[in-house]
Each structure stands twice: as C-alpha cells, then as structure tokens.
Specification:
19% helix; Nucleoside Triphosphate Pyrophosphohydrolase; alpha+beta; 4-stranded antiparallel β-sheet; globular; 3 helices
C-alpha cells in the first residue's frame, strides 16, 4: 500500500510593535530555537482563526490578522516534511500575562529586525527571516484572497 504525501499546513503571525517583532523561543528536537508565533491548522478551522489562536496560545497576546504577507513552501532538509506556511500581519490586542504558554514555549520575546537576522542560526526555519523581510518590504495581500467554506 502506498502512502499519500501531503504538506503540513501551518500559519504564522508577524506581530510588529514599535519596530520590533514578536517571536517565541521554543524547545525543539534541535534545541532551543526561535520562531514566529506559529502552528498547525486544525480540522474545521480557517487559516485566519488558526493564526489568531496560535498567537494567543504561544505568546498570551491577542492578535487579529488583517493581511496575508505570503505563502511559503519549505521542505525540511531532512526530507521528511514539507511545510506550507501562511503568514499574516495584523493588529496586536491585549496581553494576558497570567496565561500559560503552550507546552514547549519558553518565552515570547520582542526583537528588532537586526536581532532577528543576528539570531538566524537559532531559527526553526529560514522562513522566519524571510517573512520579516517580506513584511518590511510592504508585502500585504487582502484576506479576501483566502476563501474559507465551512
């Protein structure tokens, strides 16, 4: 019996405040790495609501996606998984400092673009820096580009 290949669909929040970006430091199989607040699309969920949920779960910040920054396809070098990432920018809401972060997330941290670039050897994927660069280049697509039925 053959297996059916499918990419892992993920969402990522590009949260910018005062020239700094919200990242998370998380435990991975490769050690402590940085990532945007990001995660997998769950059954029945829209991409936009998944992004807002992941941002809250990983940072305790409410986030409202307002634009699509880009869609990124990245096959891990190990060759076992291909990620299809939908990255969103948006508006930052309230912070709940008493909220527990997702398992494996050590902390949320604000970084300047220079700090994001300087830590690239500790990024979970090359998509982190690329997403920031695309955001800084002004890439924004309307959310109605994405059609969700259900």
């Amino acid at each position: 019996m053959s297996t059916i290949w499918k990419p892992n669909v993920t969402v990522a929040a590009l949260v910018e405040r005062d020239g700094r970006f919200l990242l998370v430091e998380e435990e991975t199989e490769q050690g402590l790495l940085f990532n945007q607040p990001a995660g997998h699309l769950e059954p029945g969920e829209s991409l936009v609501s998944a992004c807002a949920r992941e941002a809250l779960e990983e940072t305790a910040w409410n986030f409202n996606p307002t634009a699509l920054v880009g869609v990124y396809q990245w096959p891990r070098p190990q060759g076992d998984i291909t990620y299809l990432r939908f990255a969103f920018s948006g508006t930052l809401g309230d912070h709940d400092p008493g909220r527990a972060l997702d398992k494996g997330i050590l902390r949320a941290v604000w970084m300047s673009p220079a700090e994001v670039e300087a830590t690239r050897d500790r990024h979970r994927s090359p998509l982190i820096l690329q997403c920031v660069q695309d955001y800084l280049a002004g890439r924004r697509f309307p959310l109605d580009l994405i059609r969700h039925y259900g």
